[in-house]
Amino acid sequence: MTVHIDFPDPSVDDWVGVFSPANFNSSSCPPVNDPKEQIPFICSAPIKYKFSNYSNSRYTKTGKASLRFQLINQRADFSFALFSGGTSNPKLVAVSNFISFANPKAPLYPRLAQGKSWDEMTVTWTSGYDIKEATPFVEWGPQGKTPVQSPAGTLTFGRNSMCGSPARTVGWRDPGFIHTSFLKNLWPNLVYAYRLGHLLPDGSYIWSKKYSFKSSPYPGQDSLQRVVIFGDMGKAERDGSNEYSNYQPGSLNTTDRLIEDLKNIDVVFHIGDITYANGYISQWDQFTAQVEPIASTVPYMIASGNHERDWPNSGSFYDVTDSGGECGVLAETMFYVPAENRAKFWYATDYGMFRFCIADTEHDWREGSEQYKFIEHCLATVDRQKQPWLIFAAHRVLGYSSDFWYGMEGSFAEPMGRESLQRLWQKYKVDIAFYGHVHNYERTCPVYQNQCVNKEKSHYSGIVNGTIHVVVGGAGSHLSNFSQVTPSWSLYRDYDFGFVKLTAFNHSSLLFEYKKSSDGNVYDSFTVSRDYKDVLACVHDSCEATTLAS
């Protein structure tokens, strides 16, 4: 949309905000003991905004400018408002005419996720239709065949489900209705077409556009399987607008590199710090729209991070305000994961020759905890002859990182992390452990108890005698500095935006690649070659009991 401004008293700090619903409260609502509320302090937070001189440097002399905004359908009408006084002391000057999408309630932003069994795919989407207004479903089937319809469940939540401000106050926006359908009994490796539907009371249908996905391979199937892993991506505005928590400069580059390579990706893991909405609810729509080309085509599996979950006195392991009052509700509702209880965001999922054990660092993981028991069960129950590639992933760094702040603490990881879990990684011979939270890239040697157990750097073969730990939190958010000390276990560090791609060629060969988001090229890599007997072999602190009996 193009917004034209004509203001007889222009100033360098005039700005135009995008508001939805169009009828908004422009009063000032300064924070009260709230470290997460951000300027501009308006009682109805704008979705985004631009300064009036963004496209015309002569605005302060002419009072005339034209601004272009990219809008997405967010289930309500829109207006644009001109403010003077900058973002610190905003004063409403004028409001535009109201505009709306043709069908504000339309089903949008599908996101796929693996179900609780290998032959199940879930489809989650957002609409403006309550179940009293329309019945949600997915029409789907093998491409080119007669489709069937599967029902969908519907969830939503209200302002009183938020734990604090800004999510409960100025950042609140109605999330619409979140629908999830479970597509079951899928044939392996088959392309399925689908579209989202809502049946209205008069018998007519509301349809989304058509999408497709490829179903998962049978667990243990020997075929080419490609996985992308990253953390802390967030979102950004393609039209150059400012937004709350506007500090994810690498987000769009990472998104675009994945879209460009989508035909060579089978499943994506975004391991925490998903949107950085931080209590400004409208930004979850912005994020799901940004990743729609990816999440509508391949499973988009998420993990919980501090910016999704943490809030004081809400049950999070860390008693901080990083979620902006969301306390996990948005992440648990907007995305499906195959957890037994989505409020406890840990789960196991299989993809062909891979087993993934996804931990929730915002809940207690220490020995004796409920989550510790889950992690051991996940690692212990995989059949390594069929699924040789065992991956552990979590948001905060429970293993190894030479991040500046971890170095200052002297722990070079989240305190208490590896002290609790390294015995399990070693016992069950985890191949690679991935983390976000720290916004850079770092790879360790195969390590156990702070010691490298393999001198190789680019090719590993034979017995699994230690876990490689990888920080891959540089997908979008502002970058994190490294410690001036480089520990002996740190092989490669990169202060840049990027992501990791794993390619399993078969049961014996794995390729690891770190790619930069700026160009999609590979800047660090290694290969693993081994046989089943190498996984079974006895290594330090990972030997099965034996007997002298014959």
From TrEMBL:
Reaction catalyzed: a phosphate monoester + H2O = an alcohol + phosphate
Keyword Hydrolase appears in the UniProt entry: yes
Q: What positions does the domain Purple acid phosphatase C-terminal occupy?
A: 466-525
List where in the cell it is found.
Answer: Secreted
What GO terms fall under cellular component here? Answer: extracellular region
* Cofactors named for this entry: Fe cation; Zn(2+)
Q: Give its E.C. classification number.
A: 3.1.3.2
The record's comment on protein family reads:
Belongs to the metallophosphoesterase superfamily. Purple acid phosphatase family.
Q: How does it assemble?
A: Homodimer.
Q: What is this protein called?
A: Purple acid phosphatase
Please report the organism this UniProt entry assigns to the protein: Medicago truncatula
Lineage here is: Eukaryota, Viridiplantae, Streptophyta, Embryophyta, Tracheophyta
Q: Which gene encodes it?
A: 11426370
